[in-house]
Amino acid sequence: MADVLMNRTTTPILTKVRLISADMLLYHLYPFVSTDQGYWFPSTYVYQSNGMELFLPWAKLESKNQFYHIAPLLGGMSLDEFKSKMAYPYSDPMRYIGTFNHAQWITDYIDPSRVGIRD
């Protein structure tokens, strides 16, 4: 499925980086907004190359202001609630069977203790 998606990307609007970013963002947001016990498997994560900078908001969350901009995506939860729920929510890393690399989690982009430390 990921291969089909990646082969259908067309620049400049739908680039591979944007597609992977959207897939990863859905993977990260799912546990915060879903009421079921399911998950979003980020099938395109294997196409993320070393040094590829994704369009994800997590590294910017040292700023409280940036957190409040994305709070609606998190269901409007508070800063403290978000920090307490940042731990990896699954028992095993999300990865394809037989691969070493796994999909990165929010805490791979920012340490919870760094969230909201600046105004």
Rg, Cα atoms, Å:
15 Å
> What's the β-strand tally?
0
What general form does the structure show?
globular
Helix content: 25-40%
The total domain count is 1
Number of helices: 4
State the separation between the terminal residues, measured CA to CA. Answer: 42 Å
Order of SSEs, N→C? HHHH
Global structural class: mainly alpha
List low-confidence stretches. none
| Average pLDDT level | 93
Q: Biggest sheet, in brief?
A: none
Oligomer: single chain
- What fraction strand? under 5%
Describe this structure in words.
The structure is a single chain. By secondary structure, the chain is mostly helical. The chain has one domain (2-45, 55-114). 31% of the residues lie in helices and 0% in strands. The protein contains 4 helices and no strands. It has helices at 2-7, 16-33, 64-70, 79-84. The longest helix has 18 residues, at 16-33. It is globular and about 40 Å long.
List the helices and strands and how they pair.
Blueprint: H1 2-7, H2 16-33, H3 64-70, H4 79-84
Quick structural overview:
By secondary structure, this protein is mainly α. It has helices at 2-7, 16-33, 64-70, 79-84.
